[in-house]
Design goal:
This protein has 336 residues and is mostly helical. Helices cover 46% and strands 7% of the residues. It contains 14 helices and six strands. The protein has a three-stranded antiparallel β-sheet with strand order 1-2-3, with helices on one face. The longest helix is centred in the middle third of the chain and has 20 residues.
Length: 336
């Protein structure tokens, strides 16, 4: 039941609506205020504005509403684009199970049960989805929208670092049969130690006299990858990618229409090239991912981990260490 108004003249107002300096305002439970309409509006107009707002606002007493509100928050908007995409993907699995449950009714044992069941298919995804859920609850707790975080104290699965290193023979075999679109992407990912998203988003305006200006989508670190003959050759191939007559493109890797490749669109070409390579070179293995190209680049760099970190753009050396996968050659006793 709503609290009684101090001023009896305000009893006609909708719940949690007050008169501000110049407008009628709605004060959400979690704090702050939302402008409804001008102070000169009639009572009917105030109620109409309030109903429009409430109908558009998610029910944040349920986890589905809480997640929707998080997706509209400044905290979410400030995240890297790739992180936003990942969070939306993780939310689908979480909401399918917990979406219609009141946020404060979810307990650690519920999260543990979810992890146990999800982990039978993918422990890595179970960890990511639990981390997303924790992020939402942490954001909501700071704003008084929930009483606690049910993911706190729930252990994640231990993850094993990926160790796949692409050999030079495997790389060259795939490169030899791949279409130009895949060849250019391979070279940019390998030579620049770049993620797939940064490669597909790369624009011609990023080509500067000293090299290619890349601001990593995940770490926001900006670097100019200096020109080398091999990197210039890759850009040369990109300039010959077909265009529909009369069309041009802003992107280095582009479709004939001039638009960039989506992740799914490019990956279909990537998988097709790997399948063809597997048939042409049955003695080699092509069980690597596109992201492993970045790891090959970092592994093939000369220097110690700190020198590789400076080139890769990682924020700490631990990240670089996870990508450095080439097995070291060390001397035997008496061979030093």
């Amino acid at each position: 039941m709503p609290r009684a108004r101090k001023n009896k003249d305000d009893t006609w107002m909708p719940p949690r609506v007050y008169i501000g300096r110049s407008a009628y305002e709605y004060h959400p439970k979690g704090g702050g205020n939302i402008r409804l309409c001008d102070k000169t509006c009639t009572q009917a107009q105030v109620w109409t504005a309030w109903e429009a707002l409430i109908n558009d606002r998610p029910d944040d007493s349920l986890l589905s509403g809480l997640v929707e509100r998080f997706f509209k928050s400044g905290d979410f908007v400030e995240l890297a684009i790739e992180t936003q995409k990942d969070y939306r993907k993780y939310s689908q699995k979480i909401l399918a199970v917990f979406g219609q449950m009141p946020s404060d009714s979810i307990k650690p044992e519920h999260v543990r049960r979810y992890m146990d069941k999800r982990g039978t298919k993918s422990r890595t995804q179970a960890n990511r989805e639990k981390a997303f859920m924790s992020r939402v609850y942490r954001w909501a707790y700071e704003r008084g929208l929930v009483k606690g975080n049910p993911t706190k104290g729930v252990r994640q699965y231990k993850e094993t670092s990926r160790e796949r290193y692409i050999t030079d023979d495997e790389y060259q075999a795939l490169y030899s049969i791949a279409p130009d679109v895949v060849r250019v992407a391979m070279e940019l990912a390998y030579l620049c130690c770049a993620r797939q998203n940064d490669v597909l988003d790369m624009k011609k305006s990023q080509l500067v006299p000293d090299g290619i200006l890349i601001k990593q989508s995940k770490t926001s670190v900006a670097q100019i990858k200096g020109w080398s003959p091999r990197l210039q050759a890759a850009i040369g191939i990109s300039e010959s990618l077909p265009n529909t007559p009369g069309m041009s493109s802003l992107y280095i890797i582009h479709q004939p229409s001039g638009s960039k490749y989506s992740r799914d669109g490019f990956n279909s070409r990537w998988r097709k090239a790997k399948q063809e390579a597997k048939e042409r070179f049955p003695t080699l293995s092509f069980d690597f991912t596109f992201h492993d190209l970045k790891a090959k680049g970092i592994s093939d760099l000369k220097g110690n981990l700190y020198e590789k970190q400076a080139i890769s753009g990682h924020k700490n050396v631990e990240q670089t260490a996870r990508y450095d996968r080439k097995i070291s050659i060390v001397p035997v006793v008496g061979g030093q």
